[in-house]
Amino acid sequence: MLLGTYEHTIDDKNRLTLPARLRESFADGIVVTRGIEPCLDAYRREDWVRHVESRLATLDPLSKETRKLQRHLFSGASEAQLDKQGRVMISAPLIEHAGLARDVVVVGIRDHLEIWDRDEWRRELAEVEGSAEDVAERLAAKSD
Description:
Blueprint: E1 5-9, E2 15-17, H1 20-23, E3 30-34, E4 40-44, H2 45-56, H3 64-74, E5 78-80, E6 87-89, H4 92-98, E7 103-109, E8 112-117, H5 118-142
Antiparallel strand pairs: 1-7, 2-6, 3-4, 3-5, 4-8, 7-8
């Protein structure tokens, strides 16, 4: 399980060093793609395949919304191997999508990582912390 919040930087060659405690999880490869919010999502290869097969492959390909979502996720996705220092190259279009500057935050979200610009993450976290109780109550009500 991928957990925690880690502050890191992107170097001049657009490489992000993954947190040391997470690197082993990505030994078999990493898939980085656009997030729905202004962030990037990074999956272990096997989790990416599982995500695609369980959530995306079941969507109706004739639906305009499905095609838009697939374009958003797949056109920006890139597969890579971490280098010996545990770094992954982040493409310029992905950096632009997430508005990443040098300082970033890597957040463990169960089966994937989110990569946020540090300032944007702070705004997101403030919003989440201000509404978590209400969201939890609404979700609980849906499961009744």
